[in-house]
Amino acid sequence: MVRTYGPDLAALCRAGTALLPDIAGLGLSAGHIAGSPPAGSTPRTRFSSDPSGSRLESAQYTLDEGPCRDAAASRAPVLAADLTGASWTRRWPRFTPAALRAGIKAVYALPLHAGGVRHDGAVDLYHHAPGRLDGSAVERSAVAFAAAVTELLTLERLELDFAEAFAAGRLGDTVLDMAAGKPVSGPAALVSDIPGLPLARWFDRSTLAIVRRQVAALSAGHGLTHAAGHGWVLAVHEAMTNAVWHGGGHGQLLLWRRDGRLWCEISDHGPGIGHTAEPGCRPDPRGGRAERRGLWLIQRACTSLDITTDTTGSRLLLSYRLQHPQSS
């Protein structure tokens, strides 16, 4: 098993290439979070396993057509099982001949989304022979790989060095294992020593208490009073509990300090939150759903709460303004 740690997209893509042995090549084009790119920006090639794949990745944006562009625009996988078919030439009249000249007969493009967050771009898997991907082990691994790429792109967006936190948080688990939905190891695998910021942790039901204690200790060490710290830690714990019970059984926590606030991002790969609060509003705790009451409690305890959710998962971004912040 190829292991990779930290927000290193090239290392992750090399691992993906090794873990998907049936593919002829792998390409990744990625840009900003979907829906909020700077004007005029487009995804760019971030990785290609070989020169031929690099040319095909770049050609899709030069030609303004291709599976990566379609997957990013539609937010759905594009599975071209046989590029020799006339329908694909009609769909991509310039990209398809270029792919066939490079010896590519099939391509599968997977959009970049995980935990309710989407990035413009896609992962492209190239094949020398026609064939379908649906329902195969390769498809499941490919979907897990695309989710893992999205998680690392999200860390890049935070502009923080999470490499050391990643290594400490995973403790031997691979990025692909977690993205595939395998639970983290039990409590014995999570060290009890209090780490520093930034903090990255993957949690399930068995590790909630340990992660909560680490968040509490770090929060106290950064100036939160007992009363304020209790509310903040309760909010973080509630968000993690929601991820476990409603988001697929496990989730990812990132904790850091910036601009006089503590920030915590919790994401999962569940079915999404059915009701979210609009900015400035509070979910009604009388709605009857434990999940909704949990969001109401979180908002009461935090300075801000931002929710991103869809059918691929949810992301909660919490912050708490420090009364006497240390230099961030």
UniProtKB/TrEMBL annotation:
InterPro entries cross-referenced by the UniProt entry: Anti-sigma-factor_SerPK, GAF-like_dom_sf, HATPase_C_sf, HATPase_dom
Assigned keywords, A-Z: Kinase, Serine/threonine-protein kinase, Transferase
Region of interest (Disordered), ranges: 35-56
Kinase found in the keyword field: yes
Compositionally biased tracts (Polar residues): 42-56
Entry annotated with the keyword Transferase: yes
Record domain Histidine kinase/HSP90-like ATPase: where: 207-318
GO MF annotation: an example: protein serine/threonine kinase activity
Gene3D superfamilies: 3.30.450.40, Histidine kinase-like ATPase, C-terminal domain
CDD domains in the cross-refs: HATPase_RsbW-like
Name of the molecule in the record: Histidine kinase/HSP90-like ATPase domain-containing protein
Lineage, opening ranks: Bacteria, Bacillati, Actinomycetota, Actinomycetes, Micromonosporales
